Amino acid sequence: MLDITAHIDAIAEEVHAKRAQAARTLVAIAGAPGSGKSTLAAEVARRLRAQRCPALVMPMDGFHLDNAVLADRGLTQRKGAPETFDAEGFLLAIDRMSRAQEVVVPIFDRQRDIAIAGALAVPADCPVVIVEGNYLLFDEAPWRDLAPLWTISAYLKVDIAELRARIIQRWLSHNLSRAAATRRAEMNDIPNAQRVIDRALPADLLLTSGL
Asked: For position 10, which CATH number holds?
């Protein structure tokens, strides 16, 4: 596993510097598929809780459209692209979260490849919510409307060749053959990654890895 201690330190320091300014601190951890967002978000939350700062992680992936909806729209092979998410629903949830309300959101079950409704409740008194996802700093409508809602934004910048290797390894870990894993990555995940890179909005923290 990559040493991400410096990234954890940077985000945790920003949280402690800003958390007194509002009832809730919303931290966005954005980046392309395979950049390490989920791991970093979990470790930042662990660090904050160890420092007596309650924190929850909310993945964006719970807002995947259902497979039946994707099939109806001819988007099955593009799952993970911006248009395969309930972007407006996600924006509404983040807007409510920014106002320190209780918010109940879905969570994506990767084993079953479905979103589970109402699976994560973020209580109104949770002071720090760490949101991780590909399109949190994405300069396309309606995603760009998220940017003003973040208290702190971090973008994980990873070289496209490194992303490709990581994504293929991810599919290999799901028991796909090398050929199938490579095909899956190059048909969908790598184009999505390049789109995130090309359309990234500025972040408070630019965190580099594998460059």
From this structure: 3.40.50.300
